[in-house]
Structure formats: C-alpha cells, structure tokens
Amino acid sequence: MLTGSPILVLFVAGALAFLTVLHFWLATRYDHGRSIQGPLEEERAIFARITEKRATLADIEHDLQKRREALAVVADVQAEVDALTRKRDDLLDEWNQMEPRRQEVLALRRELEEVQVEKLRFDGEFAAAKAEHEEIRDRLARAERLLDQIESLKKEREELANRIEQLKPELRLLEEAKERVAHLDGRAIALEADVARLQGQIDAGQDRVDELDTRIAASRNAAAEVENARTKALADLSAVELALRGAEAQSRDAEERMRRNQAGLDRIKADLDASRLELTDLQDQVGELTSHVNELQEQKAVLAAERSNAVFSLDDMRREIDRLEETRAMLEARNAKLSRQSGEAGTSDDDPLRELKVEPQLITVLRNWEESEAIDENDALQRVQGHFRATGLTYSDRKLRAFHTAMKVNESTQMAVLAGISGTGKSQLPRQYAAGMGIGFLQVPVQPRWDSPQDLMGFYNYVEGRFRPTDMARALWAMDELNNPEGALHDRMLMILLDEMNLARVEYYFSDFLSRLESRPAAFEVGEGSRRKDAEIELEIPTPDGKSPRIFPGYNLLFAGTMNEDESTQSLSDKVVDRANVIRFAAPRKIDSGAAGRERPADVALKRSTWQRWAQPRRADHERKDAASKIEQMAEMMKDIGRPFGHRLGRAMLSYVDLYPRTQGIPDIVNHALADQVEMRLLPKLRGIEVEAKRQELDELEAFVSGLGDTELATAISKSVAAAETTGQFVWLGVGRE
C-alpha cells in the first residue's frame, strides 16, 4: 500500500506538472497569438497592398508595352518637336527684334483708341448739332409755312375787307330799302287808316241805306194803307153815291178827303222816288268805295310783298355780312395766334386777370351791408318769414325749413332744385330767402343755346387777347379766399341760382362744374392745396408765369336751381337728381292775393361763422341709429321698385336728418326729416316706372310714409299713382301743403 502510494503520488505529481506545463504553454501560446495578432493583420494588409501593387505593375507593364510600341514614332515626333523648337527660337528672336515695332504699334493703338473716343465725342456733338439743325430747319420751314399762311390770311383778310367794302353799297341800298320799307310801312299804316275810315264811311252809308230801306218799307206800308184807305173810300163813296145820291155835302167832303189822300199818296210816292234815287247814289258810292278799298288792298299786298322781299334780302345780306364778319374774326384770331407762334406778336403788359377782378354789383352791395349779430337759427327763420310777408309772399314753414336744410347740407348734396309749373314762386323763394338771411344772391338765367362750361364761366377771346368772364366767374373769384386772399370778400355767404336750368341740357354746361363741387374736400381740409386741386376750376387765361388762375368754389357758396315743366324744357338726368334735393311746387289750392305786408327789415349780412355754427350736427346717437335703420328700409324698398341708391345718397339723407333745425311743435324730428327726404330724393327717382307692375311696392312706400306721420305726403303719393293709371307710368305731382 505504501509502495504503491509514492508511485501514485509521482504519477499525480507528474500529471499535475504536465498539466501545469500544458497550461503554461497554452497561456504562452495564447499570449503569443495575442501579441502577433497586430503584425498578422498588418501582414494581411501588406499582402493586400502587394496584390494591388502587382495589379498596378501589370497595368504599368501594359502601358509600358504600349509606350514601347509608341516609341517607334517618338523619333519622328522628336524631330518635329526639335523643328518646332527651332522655329520657336527663331520666332522669339524675331519677336525680340520686333519689340520696338510692337511698342510703336501699342502706341499707335492707344492713339487710335484716343482718336476713336474723340470721334465718338464728335459724333455725339455732330448728332446733337444735326438734330438741332434739323429742328432749326423744321422751325424755319414751319415759320415759312406760317409766314405763307399769314400772307395768305392777310390776302384773304384783304379780300374779305374788299368784299365787305363791295357789299357796303349793297348794304346802303338795303338800308335805303329798309327806309323805303319803313316809309311803305308808314304809308301802309296810313292806307290802313284810310281803309278803316272808308270802311267806317261804308258802314255809315250801309247804316243809312238800312235806315232808308226801313223808311221805304214804312212808306210802302203807309202807301199800302193809303191805297187800302182809298179803296175803302171809293167803296164808301160808291156806297154813299148809291145810298145818298142826293147828299152833295157828303160827296164834296168825300171828294175832299180823297184829294187829301191822293195828295198824301203823291207825297209818299215822291219821297219813295227820292229815296230810290238816294239809294242808287249810295250804292254807287259803296261801289266806288269798294273798288277803292280793293285797290288799296291790292296796293297793300304789293307793298307787303315788296317789304317781305326787301326784308328777306336785307336778312340775307345781314346773314352774309355776319358770316363774313365771323370769318374775318376767325381769321384774325388765327392770324393773331400764328403771329404769336412765329414770334411776331409782342407781349402785353396788361393784367391778364383785369376783367376777372371787376367786382360785380352784388358783391359791392354785400360788402356794404352791416354785419348781423350772433342770431339763433330759429330766430333767423322767423325773420325770413317776416321778409316773405313784407314782400307779399306766402310759403309754408315746412317748405322754408326744407329749403334751409337743403342749403345747409352742401357738403354732401351740391344743390337744391325747385321744380314745378310756372308762376308758383320757385325763383322768389331762394331770392327772398337770401335777402332775409343776409346772404348775397346772384341769379344766372340759363339760355337754351348753352352747351359748354364756358357759358357759365366765360371764355378767352384770342382776337382781343383777353378773358371775358361772366358775372358768375367774377362772383366766384370775389368769394375765393384761398386763391384771391387780398381781394376776396371774407366771412360772407353767397347763393347762386340757375334760373330755368333745364332750358338747356344740364349735363352739357353744368356737369363738369357739378363734379368739381362733388370733389371738394371736407371743410377742415380745404386749406391743403393737394386736397382741393381736383375741385378747383382752371380758367383759360394765359399768364406770364404759365400758370392759369384757378377758382375754388368753397363752402361759402350755396347753389340752387329752378326748372319749369313744359314742352320747351329738358328733364334732369339721374346724375343731377342724385346730387340735389328736388323740392317740387304743386299747383296751389287757392290763389294768393300777393298783398304786401309791413315794411321789410333792414338788410344785414350773415356771417359765414354763424352759418357754420348752424351746420353742426343736431341729433343724438339714438336718433342717428333710428334714422340709419329707416334709411336702410328705404334702400330696400327702392331696390324692390327698381330704383336703388348707393352710399352717397344714404349719407346725404342722414346728413339732412342730422342738420334739420329743431322746431317747436314737431315731436319727432327724425321722421319729419325722413319724410322730406322721401319727397325730395326718392319720389323724383320714380319717374317713368310702370305703376301696374310695381303697385305693391308703391303701396309699401305709401304705408312707410304714413308710418312716418306724414299723411299729406302719403295722400299725394296715392294721387300720383292714381293719375298714372291713364299713362301707365309714374309721374310725381308734388304735395300741396298749407
């Protein structure tokens, strides 16, 4: 057991030693593997690079093979290169030898560039000179043409003057013919008097003939009675002779009575014969007078024909002379214009605004009025009513306040139009209102021939070289405190009335002016020139500085117009109706006597500052909201009727409500003013609508007006609708108010 144990121990020890050595070797091997891991990886990388280099070497050898193949032609290329090198060297030597020449060429090039720059400058100057030369040549040609035209116009003028001189004898002959016509007229009048006198004599003779016929008839009746009496007497005599042959006395009495009767019958026959002779004479005289009258009438007809021919000839000659004078004036104007263009006309030292600065009489009168004290608006309206009564005029208080408010809203509504039949006081209302208020008044009668704004403002006469302004232009200039600060009338108001404004087409002569009024800025912005430039009226007046004078129609101006409604007038367009309060004057219910009352009050001038104070808003916020709501209802109704209106008219109606003066006895000012606007702004727009097709909408409008409390206006609408049943189209007849 003991002998076997050491062996086992040795075996175990040997095994352990072997395991230890093995473990150590394995550990060493592991450490060696770990230590050579990096070099192995580097070796692998080197092998990869070697492989890559070998591939590159193969490629290089392939390229080298190609290059070797190309080396066969390298000698030729090298020879060519050597030749080119030698040529280059020769060229370099030549280039070096040509350096002075090159410098000379560069100098020449720089000089050439300078010459080209100079040439370009001279070309520019030459082009400018050439253009100036062409312009001068054109101007000379134009001047020559103008001179030729002037010469031709002078010749034409001389020919016209000669023709006028040639026509002057004919004119004298015509004047003599006119005098002869006047003489013949006098003679005709005298002959007419003779005819009248002879006719009177004929009438007197005829009366005498009638009297003689009456006397003859009476004589014949008397003769018949005498003959009857004689017959009866003879019968009685026979009876007496038969009955009383022996009564000698009775027989003598009967014979005496018969003789007397016979004598009376003879006298009657003599008178009858004398009357017949007188009748024959009178008939002869009547025949002579009739023939004389016929001769006079024939002579009168001949004189009338001669007079007519002479008048026609005179009219023709006058028309010809007028035409020649117009042609002469036109040619003189053209001559003056051409003379100015060609530099022949000199400049005038006269003030180009001299005619415009002539102050109209109404401005002078207004300037001399005393200023009124600060006055309440209602007191001023009562003063106007007193002025009406003093001049024998009668206008309802409501119509006066409506017109007054229409004047106050001139920022949103440019004018008031008074329409209706003739003789209802349309022109007198603004005239006497202005006088009672203390506002200047200018009446502008519109003529049927007006067709341009020049008819309102005037024109520039090129013949006289002066501007010929109208009274309206002078008045506007005198009221323009911005463009005429030194000569303007300050702190005053002026009303301009276009009387019978629809005799001519309003769009032709007033449309541009109305657009200027509409373009005016707000009152607090008129001091800025850029704001008011579109509203200013530029006058055609040449001035030395080249700036034409301008007139600004400010808010110190009030505009009104009248229009009659007959066959000789034009209807207003929608543009004018939209920008105006139309007050219609209905036919009066009774004729006013027109008797003047007490003395009229003294004239005092209303201050513009007072007017501006009156033009401040009067309504409270809740009243404005109520008015705006009802205006929207009106807009819907007008849209349904087919006559819609826009924001401008709505704002204008609201402004009218806002500025209506507060009046005692009117509890609801808003409804009162809105009813006025229905009358003045909406009903005129309904002209021409088909009543049958819009009957329901018109009934709604009538009900709306009744809701505003104006029963008179609602009744007037109903009457206008009923009157339109015959024609089928609506025509507003107006409302008559007491």
UniProtKB/TrEMBL annotation:
InterPro entries: P-loop_NTPase (IPR027417). It comes from the Bacteria. Residues 67-94, 126-341 form a coiled coil. The keyword Transmembrane applies. The chain crosses the membrane at residues 7-26. Keywords: Coiled coil, Membrane, Transmembrane, Transmembrane helix. This is Chromosome segregation ATPase-like protein. The lineage of its organism: Bacteria, Pseudomonadati, Pseudomonadota, Alphaproteobacteria, Rhodobacterales.
